């Protein structure tokens, strides 16, 4: 019997442990991926702590997966070959029969298969994934570079490209952490006049290196909204900060018919009044990740424009240390597990 290592959590909020399991065999329309790298996302905490419904233990999280196909299930040979480099993100497959799926809106699948939630995730040496979850990794991207793009990258890239903003428009990115540092790079590469918003003056030079044309200190005497208005008003704001108060403070900085794209998670409600939305025709839109094709587009765009996540890598055996560093906010900016 062939075995492989997985990093599992035995019960809610327990530390990670490395265990040996039998190497799984893919069923029809599935493949087995030899994992080269897997990013640690803050959303993994919702599974580890059982904050999300329906979590089962022992749990193997991980939805920023990059690796190589090692075994093909029945019905996959016409699309994929052993050795193909692939990524799997938050979109880990869809049911194909619910109403959103039948309408082609696969991210809204009511039975969305998130790795680590619907099936064992990528904190392992191998993972089984459905073929509709696979995105091809460009040759220019190493596995540790591709992995965070499968969730963090596609979230901000897809959110920006689906916005109403066009090249030359003023676009702001709130927060320049794990999501925001990618958002600034994408916004600049898409041709937007890019504003980075963060706390304090110490991140201004870093924001400029990422491609920001302007920097707004959210702790300054001038409010964030007034600072954006002084620049002409933002056509779109990508809100990556996990703070409803910080997100709310940007709204009046939108231009007419501007769009607030919310990707930062916070359980507290946004403090936005109907009159703010109605008078200026504003849009508030929640956004999550993207399909396998969106992930593939994100990686291709990133490879073409030289965009990379800033990562810290750790071997799989050090998963608990890496997870705790992510949770503490000390990571700069994405923690990535490797199996090499």
How many strand segments?
Answer: 15
What is the alpha-carbon Rg in Å? 20 Å
* Low-confidence regions: none
Q: What is the terminal-to-terminal distance?
A: 22 Å
Percentage of helical residues? Answer: 10-25%
Number of helices: 11
Silhouette: globular
| Beta fraction | 25-35%
Helix-strand makeup class: alpha/beta
What is the averaged pLDDT score?
A: 97
Order of helices and strands: EEEHEEHEEHHEHEHEHEHEHEHEHE
Summarize the main sheet: 7 strands, mixed
Question: Which terms summarize this structure?
Answer:
340 residues; alpha/beta; 15 strands; globular
What's this, in brief?
This protein is an alpha/beta fold and 340 residues long. It has helices at residues 44-48, 99-102, 143-146, 152-161, 180-189, 204-210, 224-230, 244-248, 274-280, 292-305, 319-328, and strands at residues 3-9, 16-22, 30-40, 64-72, 85-88, 126-130, 135-136, 170-174, 193-198, 214-217, 234-239, 254-262, 283-286, 311-315, 334-338.
């Amino acid at each position: 019997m062939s075995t492989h290592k997985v990093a599992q959590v035995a019960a809610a909020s327990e530390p990670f442990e490395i265990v040996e399991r039998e190497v799984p065999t893919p069923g029809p329309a599935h493949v087995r991926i030899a994992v080269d790298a897997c990013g640690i996302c803050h959303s993994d905490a919702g599974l580890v702590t059982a904050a999300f419904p329906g979590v089962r233990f022992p749990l193997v999280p991980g939805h920023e997966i990059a690796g190589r196909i090692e075994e093909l299930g029945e019905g996959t040979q016409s699309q994929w070959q052993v050795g193909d480099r692939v990524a799997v993100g938050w979109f880990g497959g869809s049911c194909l029969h619910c109403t959103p799926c039948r309408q082609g809106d696969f991210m809204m699948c009511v039975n969305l298969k998130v790795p680590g939630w619907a099936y064992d995730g990528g904190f392992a040496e191998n993972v089984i994934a459905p073929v509709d979850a696979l995105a091809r990794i460009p040759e220019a991207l190493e596995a540790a570079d591709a992995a965070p793009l499968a969730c963090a990258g596609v979230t901000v890239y897809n959110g920006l490209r689906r916005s109403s903003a066009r090249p030359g428009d003023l676009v702001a990115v709130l927060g320049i952490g794990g999501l925001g540092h990618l958002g600034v790079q994408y916004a600049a590469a898409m041709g937007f006049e890019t504003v980075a918003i963060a706390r304090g003056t110490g991140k201004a030079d870093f924001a400029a290196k990422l491609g920001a044309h302007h920097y707004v200190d959210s702790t300054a005497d001038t409010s964030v909204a007034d600072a954006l208005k002084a620049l002409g008003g933002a056509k779109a704001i990508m809100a990556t900060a996990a703070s409803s108060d910080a997100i709310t403070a940007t709204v009046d900085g939108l231009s007419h018919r501007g769009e607030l794209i919310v990707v930062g998670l916070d359980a507290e409600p946004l403090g936005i009044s109907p009159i703010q939305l109605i008078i200026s025709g504003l849009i508030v839109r929640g956004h999550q990740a993207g399909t396998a094709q969106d992930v593939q587009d994100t990686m291709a765009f990133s490879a073409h424009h030289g965009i990379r996540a800033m990562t810290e890598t750790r071997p799989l055996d050090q998963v608990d240390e890496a997870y705790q560093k992510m949770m503490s906010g000390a990571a700069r900016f994405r923690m990535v597990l490797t199996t090499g």
